[in-house]
Amino acid sequence: MARGYYHGSVFTVSWPTGEFGGMGLEGAVRLAYRKELAAIADPDEREAEFRRRVALSYERGKAINTASVLEIDDVIDPMETRRWVLRGLKSVAPRPRAPARSAADRAVVM
Is 0.85 surpassed by the pTM of this model? Predict the structure, then answer.
C-alpha cells in the first residue's frame, strides 16, 4: 500500500510480482469502462472484452513498468529485501528526542 503516492517514503521498491493500480484492477476496469462494456449486447463478448481490458491493466501495472516511469525506486529480487530495508532504516535521520518531563508534569491532575 502506498497511501496514494510513492514520494512520501524514504524509498519504494517492489518484488517483480508486484502489481500497481489505484484499486483492484478488475473493479477499476468495471468502473472505467462501464459504458463501453454495457454497450456490448452479447454477454460472452462483453466478458471477453472485460477480460482483455483486465489483462492489459495487469500488464501495465506490473512492477517493472511502474519502475520504468520513475514511480518506484527499483524492482528487487526478494532475496535482497532485508538489505534494502536495513539500508533504508540506516539512511533515515534519527528522530529528535522529546524533552525530559519533570515529576510535576507526569503527575495526574484530578
Answer: no
